Amino acid sequence: MQTERSVQQRYAAAAQAPETALCCPVDYDRRYLEIVPAEVIEKDYGCGDPSRYVKPGETVLDLGSGTGKICFIAAQVVGPQGRVIGVDMTDEMLEVARRNAPVVAERLGFANVEFRKGRIQDLALDLERLERALKQLPIADAASFLAAEELAGELRVCAPLVATDAIDVVVSNCVLNLVEPRAKRTLFDEIFRVLQKGGRAVLRRRQRRLRLMRTFFPRAMLAVTFALVVPAAMHGAEPGRVFQSGSTRTALVELYTSEGCSSCPPAEAWLNRLGTLPGLWTEFVPVALHVNYWDHLGWRDPWASRQFTDRQRASARGWNSDTVYTPGVVLNGQEWRAWSGRNGVPRSSESVGVLTARSTDGVRWRIEFAPTGPHGQFEAWVALLSRGLESNVRAGENRGRRLHHDFVAVALVSAPMRKNGDTFRAETAIPADRSPGESLRALAVWVTSAGQLAPLQAIGGDLPRAPR
Ligand SMILES: C[S@@+](CC[C@H](N)C(=O)[O-])C[C@H]1O[C@@H](n2cnc3c(N)ncnc32)[C@H](O)[C@@H]1O
User: How many A from CA of 184 to the centre of ligand 1?
Assistant: First the structure.
């Protein structure tokens, strides 16, 4: 935080008056500078030109956009069919960039650039939304601090600053080195989260350029494996699949768990047993979401992610609870404490509509929902699950135990559904790579009302084995 505050102060001053000590000579393509206002060019603190790697029609995200020069260049390259989003944490920089955006739009004849306030290591958190909400919730004591933390978690899930799988190219011009070392891992995690399949990152550092292609290692492995990545298209294509629900509601069972919690293995054993019951996928869809809030107890859960912790917090707010715990079971969006000792999941007779997930290559999925009741706005959620995982835990509360996990979420994405006659449609892609150690992969798909977490309908199924 200390580093971040000094970076912010330095760039706040540099947004007000040009600061030569922060400038490096850069050879931009002069054609693109003609329409960029002089003030933006004078306050140029980049060290290279990542916009060269951008193509027409793409959606570009510039990390640490400053006064917006790279965004304004990229806006011309991507053209009116493309889009550019700049993210910066410094108000003074955002002020200059936002004030000049309409000038550039007028000179260009189209407006395709916007600037958002956020920290690049936390691209889900919209800082301006958070600031607006905090005006109603001033932090005066521990309780209001914890409430604010929860609110931030909820915003990350329900109104992310940059959505998952939304970006074709991430660019950054000499900003990664300004992020404090302990946040670097999260930063790379975030870059991979927002990039869509086949997306690229062009990251300029002071010395050299790094280019990354997004591939699909489990989230927990992304930061350490990025040097080994290959384009997703090189992985063997899988045969196509169709999963379809009936019109009565299939239950979604979410287990929030952690390898760092000694009371979790019995709950996981219960969830694993659901995999042996005949109602699997047709009556209930199980998903294990590993949370990261016990990671500090001595054992870092390799499948845990903050995304799942935030999701659990946001769900708990739905039943007015301030607390989250493990093992925590959520049945159709509601806390469910009666799972223990129960063989199976309560059945529903409610008619909600038919949900279909279809893919020809096992990677790109079309999700369709034909609701029984009145139409609204819907959102599709897709989780990639690893099955049959085993883990030797060497520290923490489960030290010395060999744990067996099933239905472990290794990726979770959501996409808004568009109306198409009487049905609603969304398209999304899931990771093509296998998780190390998994015996099988599966897909869980559910649909919610837009902006909600409680599922209306769910479906899922095992995926064909991919070639190793
Ligand atoms: C080196 S300048 C780059 C500006 C711009 N990309 C350019 O090429 O002129 C760094 C910018 O990154 C922003 N920045 C630094 N660390 C950041 C962080 N962790 N999150 C968001 N913005 C950050 C600063 O506010 C500043 O505007």
Answer: 15
